[in-house]
Amino acid sequence: MLSKKETMQLVEAMGELFPHATCELNYRTPFELLIAVMLSAQTTDISVNKLTPALFEKYPTIEAFEAAPVEDIMEQLKTIGLYRNKARFIKGCCHKLLTEFNGEVPQKRHELESLPGIGRKSASVVLSEAFNVPAIAVDTHVERVTKRLGICPPNATVREVEEVLMKQIPKDKWSIAHHWILFFGRYQCIARSHDHNICLQLLKANGPIKV
């Protein structure tokens, strides 16, 4: 396990490699982000961004989604994986927003996680992106990179990875550090077989680190 100093050196080196790392989902409002995050489960951001303009044009409000037949929503989502379940989640989510949260996206974690289709990772993204609440969303990229670099134990659960990162990284850096690690995993240290030595050399070139 790396120390706090070593962890931050690695993370900041990733930031040097990807200084403009940010959320790649397109959205205009907290509600659109909520839906986009829900749709992104086991689906690329690129695929989500391709369908959301037409989706939000057809259903511009929470009320429009809630009133639409679930089969119609499914038809709009057919290009992405798990579209049937996601359509049902959207319907349930919108109903709960209208009946329990006055049609507003809640800003508390436990309330976000009570919405259909929204787990801890998704709630972290919404809190961080829409409401500037420090959070670390652990997706497959973040989990893979942190384990491979020794920041987290190889047998750690997703929640344990999050807890390690929250301890090792200053709270005011949680949100941007998440993006740095994610981009490093998405665009450099990818899941497919590759020469990991190149990844290590890039990190060394961008920070005073030992890897």
Write the SSE topology:
Blueprint lengths: L3 H14 L12 H10 L5 H14 L3 H6 L2 H7 L6 H18 L8 H4 L7 H12 L8 H9 L9 H11 L5 H14 L8 H10 L6
Helix pairs in contact: 1-11, 1-12, 2-8, 5-6, 9-11
Question: How would you characterize the overall build of this protein?
Answer:
This protein is mainly alpha-helical and 211 residues long. It folds into two domains: 4-22 and 136-205, Helix-hairpin-Helix base-excision DNA repair enzymes (C-terminal) (Endonuclease Iii, domain 2), CATH 1.10.1670.10; 30-131, Endonuclease III, domain 1, CATH 1.10.340.30. Helices cover 61% and strands 0% of the residues. The protein is built from twelve helices and no strands. Helix 1 crosses helix 11 (174-187), helix 1 crosses helix 12 and helix 5 crosses helix 6 (83-100). The model has no long low-confidence stretch (mean pLDDT 96).
Q: What percent of the residues sit in helical stretches (DSSP H or I)?
A: 55-70%
Strand content: under 5%
CATH topology category name of the largest domain: Endonuclease III, domain 1
Please state the CA-atom Rg, rounded to the nearest Å: 18 Å
Instruction: Give the domain tally.
Output: 2
pLDDT below 50 for ≥5 consecutive residues: which ranges? none
Number of strands: 0
Assign the structural class, choosing from mainly alpha, mainly beta, alpha/beta, alpha+beta, or little secondary structure: mainly alpha
Global mean pLDDT: 96
- CATH class (first level) name of the largest domain: Mainly Alpha
Assembly category? single chain
Order of helices and strands: HHHHHHHHHHHH
Question: Which superfamily, in CATH terms, is the homologous superfamily of the largest domain?
Answer: Hypothetical protein, domain 2
Question: Could you say what the CATH architecture of the largest domain is?
Answer: Orthogonal Bundle
Task: Outline the biggest β-sheet.
Answer: none
Task: Give the CA-CA distance, first to last residue.
Answer: 12 Å
- What is the approximate shape? elongated
- The number of distinct helices, counting runs of at least 4 residues, comes to 12
